[in-house]
Amino acid sequence: MKHFVVRQAIKAADADTILGYELLFERGGESLYGEKENAAADTIASFLMNNSGKIFKDKQIFLTFTPALLLRNTPKIFRKDKIIIQISDNLIIHPLAMPIIEKFHKAGYRFAINDFQFSPRYFSMLDYADYVRLSMKETLSAKDMTSIENIINMAHGFGKKCIMTEVNTKERYEKALSVKADYIEGNYVAETLYVKEEKTSYMQGNLFQLIVALSKEEPDVAEIEEIISRDAGLSYSILKLVNSAYYALRHRTASIQQAVMTMGISQLRQWVYMLSLRGDESEGSGEMLRISFLRAKFAEELIANTEMKFLTPAEAYMMGMFSTLEYMIDAPIEEILAEIPVSDDIKAAIIRGEGDAGKLLELVICYEKADWKRCQVLSEELGLQASRLSQIYINCVEEVSTVWDSLTEDYARPGEGGLFAPQTGTDGEKLEDVLQ
Which domains does the chain have, with CATH numbers? Predict the structure, then answer.
């Protein structure tokens, strides 16, 4: 059976800050949690064993645990400050629910209650929870909205934060704001982070690393090219500049390497120092750049690891990276792409979703939005094995997170812990034993 894994951002309702990510598991287009208890636990535990170091590198992770996962002590894989244990009805009604939850609560783990309801069994868990999660369903009556608002007011009265989930449209987003939810999760969250500006957005970490690379006595052109290539804003600006009338190239170029060689180190230094005078970005802008980088890597790897030949890996990377440019630059996407020499196929894919390239880009975005059924359809149309998507995606998340760590996190000084708990628990348990 095919299964999919993706992260969805949880954003503050009143600011462009990311609280963390929920890790979603699906099998065959349906929630993996609908499977038999042990089957679901086996699949999730296997994934965590094989990929924990890849997908949990930055923000805290919200993960729904089945009773079997908790009985296996699975949370002990993670640092207590990096994992939020989500509990659903199948755990709340479990006869061992209270002892399990008390055990992890006393150990310092935090909890979130999924789809909170006004019932005694949910209230009995409220003392242990830091977050209350409520679903923003497709159709909500006035009575439903009143009920949600009452739950949020009650939760706030107990000092709990509320997360509205399935916020997939602007209408649902506005409703979530109206009931004063603290955090929002869903497909529309990314749209709220895409704030157009009068200038291109740059990630300061990328810019700083580029300045350092250019300041070396003998700059490494390959290193410079790699830094520029992972940032949509930097890539766009250098290509637009090198294809301007100032350089008067005989042939337009879409190659970052050629652009760097054309400009030369001296002029590139001047260009970068000018960029360094621009203002800082918000966390939301950084998250948006992360999305563009992940899209680029995912598209590139899908081409590189399959039989698809309609794009080169480099072209697929460019398509994924530039798919967010209309949100980064205050101009229509048609005008933006007219400034840079990408192929007509890539332009048609980004602007109108046309051709095989358009299907590939749609697949990347549908996976990002956890639209599993559409992912399966597009995979079949492109001749892809849907079962391979998860591992390719996870590997891309690891690479993107590794880059982001180096750009945004402080130096790991002696005595500071990493993201994950030590391989051996405080009670002497080994990692391989924890998941048995």
Answer: 3-193 (3.20.20.450), 204-276 (no CATH), 283-408 (no CATH)
